[in-house]
Specification:
25% strand, four-stranded antiparallel β-sheet, 95 residues
């Protein structure tokens, strides 16, 4: 079972309905900004074509991002990016 985050576009209500339509019982969480899906289904081009209101799809590898970043690095330099959707937390508080 894989976990994915789907970031909603400009019309979050439409995005939420799209997610429920495509993934019916697999949507485990939704808010205005994102949907969380736990599925065995592969996310291929056909699925992405049905989700016009989704702007980004993220696969969840770990709930501890530092674990993934530090364990996957092949060199002393670590390059990564963070995105924030919704909420008002400061990114410095996340790390």
């Amino acid at each position: 079972m894989q976990t994915f985050l789907f970031i909603h576009g400009k019309n979050p209500h439409l995005s939420k309905y799209e997610m429920k339509s495509v993934f019916t019982d697999e949507v485990s969480f939704q808010n205005e900004y994102l949907s969380v899906v736990e599925t065995d289904q592969s996310i291929d081009q056909q699925v992405m074509d049905r989700l016009g209101g989704i702007v980004k799809i993220c696969e969840v590898f770990s709930e501890d991002p530092l674990e993934i970043i530090l364990n996957s690095s092949q060199s002393p330099k670590v390059i990564f990016g963070l995105s924030q959707y919704g909420g008002h937390e400061r990114l410095s508080d996340v790390l």
